[in-house]
């Protein structure tokens, strides 16, 4: 019956339900149905189109089903972009577009991850489509990473990007088992968030103090006592703060962590001294809500470890088009904004208790602070303050192709000596040959007042480049402050050596 959406009684009338067995050499479960030029049916073994035999409304008597592809679909709801359906392939590694091709009079499903196959190694578990201000397909991976694909098919633009969300998930722990067989010389090597390492070494078992009073520990009596000994030794080191062991588990944190790194530990005996590491904050879900104010609203659920406890927050993406004032630029994660009378004490930050936060005060960067009792104290009074977890934005070019007198520059030694970077509404950036070799680009001159924030810069910056002689010629641009950065173009000046 027309209008009875829950009536699925079969029959031959146009208002009856359609029951059809797909003609295929496999019996596959249907994963999704999508409306397009025809009804698109995605199954675990292939993609089908259901249409009528005479371009009439679909009914039980005129349905025609044709298979279009045999890639198979994952159990993930696809998204429609204009006249294209984007779906995740069965193995969850590839995102494909199902689009009608007039040359073959059938649907094609090209692979959209072919230019960046590594980016979905964590396996896609959910996708959402943001239409405004730019076409972006957001993908949540099973390993908690967030990746996006800027998609403008009419302009042949398919560009993937990875987003590591601020904060961390999990704790760095050491679990003691079979203490009596921990060999002398067993090591616990901690890599701090800044990349430096500290190694603690097991000495001969016993109740006496270790010979190395800084980096030595002794197994003794039982697993719990040995964990206490490890706790005592690591906690005495100025770089670490250790929670009192829970049974035989020692939980370690850095005393002064960097905002964007993680603490990890490598053990030389994973059976008797098992370890876990901190990792990036985990994105668990994402949703796009169409908006009428020029931008779609993007919400996501993020899991973090805050003050040694697992927390989940529902977070909203900040506006992409925030205007032309630096004080309105919001580039922190899990952040809040204070706006009001000039103040130095900012409260309401209990969700970031114990975390090192980045701060933008009146459009200028402020030294990082650690949240205590849900508040921070600024070094100077400010009327508009953005406070949250810091993150790094990193751009790395492909290998430079400058050509040479004997053909391509690929594989040839080259040296970049100068780089021109074209910016749009930017303050603060670094440039270099790798993420460990970066120079800060000056945006403030002697003519700028030191007690006022900078206006956003649009134009070219010429940077002397400390590049070495190599065959790659990578250029890295990075923003590690809570400030806006938009790179329009990168123009290197280099010499290619043909011999």
Number of strand segments: 36
What's the gyration radius in Å? 28 Å
* Percentage of residues in strands: over 45%
Distance between the termini: 80 Å
The shape is globular
Question: How many structurally independent domains?
Answer: 4
Biggest β-sheet strands, sense, barrel: 4 strands, antiparallel
Low-pLDDT runs of 5+ residues are: none
Helix content: under 10%
> Structural class, from secondary structure content?
mainly beta
For the biggest β-sheet, the strand order reads 1-2-3-4
On the 0 to 100 scale, the average pLDDT is 89
Tally of separate helices: 1
Give an account of the 3D structure.
This protein has four domains: 1-111, no CATH class; 171-277, no CATH class; 325-390, no CATH class; 393-496, no CATH class. The chain has one helix and 36 strands. By secondary structure, it is mainly β. A hairpin with a 3-residue loop joins strand 1 and strand 2 (39-43). It has one helix at residues 223-235, and strands spanning 30-35, 39-43, 47-52, 63-69, 79-81, 84-88, 95-101, 106-108, 124-130, 136-141, 146-152, 157-163, 168-169, 172-176, 187-191, 197-202, 216-217, 240-246, 249-254, 264-267, 273-276, 279-280, 282-289, 297-306, 309-316, 333-346, 356-361, 364-370, 376-389, 393-396, 414-426, 430-434, 437-440, 457-464, 476-479, 487-496. The longest helix is centred in the middle third of the chain and has 13 residues, at 223-235.
């Amino acid at each position: 019956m027309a209008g009875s959406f829950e009536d699925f009684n079969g029959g031959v009338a146009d208002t009856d339900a359609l029951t059809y067995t797909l003609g295929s050499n496999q019996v596959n479960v249907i994963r999704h149905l999508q409306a397009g030029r025809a009804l698109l049916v995605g199954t675990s073994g292939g993609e089908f189109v259901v249409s009528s035999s005479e371009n009439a409304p679909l009914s039980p008597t005129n349905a025609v089903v044709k298979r279009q592809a045999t890639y198979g679909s994952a159990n993930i709801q696809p998204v429609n972009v204009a006249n294209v359906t984007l779906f995740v392939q069965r193995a969850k590694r590839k995102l494909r577009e199902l689009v009608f091709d007039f040359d073959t009079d059938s649907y094609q499903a090209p692979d959209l991850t072919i230019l960046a196959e590594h980016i979905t190694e964590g396996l896609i578990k959910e996708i959402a489509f943001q239409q405004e201000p730019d076409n972006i397909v957001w993908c949540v991976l099973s390993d908690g990473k967030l990746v996006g694909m800027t998609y403008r098919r009419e302009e042949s633009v398919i560009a993937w990007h990875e987003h590591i969300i601020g904060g961390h998930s999990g704790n760095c722990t050491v679990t003691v088992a079979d203490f009596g067989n921990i060999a002398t010389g067993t090591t616990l090597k901690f890599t701090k968030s800044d990349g430096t390492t500290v190694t603690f070494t097991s000495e001969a078992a016993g109740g006496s103090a270790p010979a190395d009073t800084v980096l030595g520990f002794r197994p003794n009596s039982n697993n719990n006592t040995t964990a206490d000994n490890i706790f005592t030794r690591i906690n005495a080191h100025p770089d670490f703060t250790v929670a009192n062991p829970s049974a035989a588990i020692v939980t370690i944190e850095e005393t002064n962590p960097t905002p964007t790194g993680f603490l990890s530990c490598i053990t030389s005996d994973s059976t008797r001294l098992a370890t876990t590491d901190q990792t990036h904050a985990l994105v668990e879900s994402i949703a796009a809500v169409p908006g009428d104010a020029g931008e779609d609203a993007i919400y996501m659920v993020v899991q973090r470890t805050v003050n040694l406890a697992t927390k989940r927050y529902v977070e909203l993406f900040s506006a992409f088009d925030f205007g032309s004032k630096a004080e309105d630029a919001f580039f922190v994660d899990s952040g809040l904004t204070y706006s009001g009378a000039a103040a130095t004490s900012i409260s309401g930050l209990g969700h970031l208790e114990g975390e090192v936060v980045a701060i933008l005060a009146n459009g200028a960067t402020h030294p990082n602070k650690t949240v205590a009792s849900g508040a921070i104290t600024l070094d100077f009074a400010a009327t508009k303050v953005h406070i949250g977890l810091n993150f790094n934005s990193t751009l790395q070019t492909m290998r430079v192709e400058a050509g040479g007198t004997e053909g391509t520059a690929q594989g040839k030694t080259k040296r970049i000596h100068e780089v021109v970077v074209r910016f749009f509404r930017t303050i603060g950036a670094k440039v270099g040959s790798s993420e460990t070799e970066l120079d800060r680009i000056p945006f403030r001159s002697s003519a700028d007042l030191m007690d006022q924030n900078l206006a956003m810069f649009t134009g070219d910056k010429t940077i002397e480049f400390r590049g070495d002689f190599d065959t790659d010629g990578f250029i890295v641009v990075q923003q590690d402050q809570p400030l806006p950065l938009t790179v329009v173009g990168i123009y290197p000046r280099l010499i290619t050596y043909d011999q």
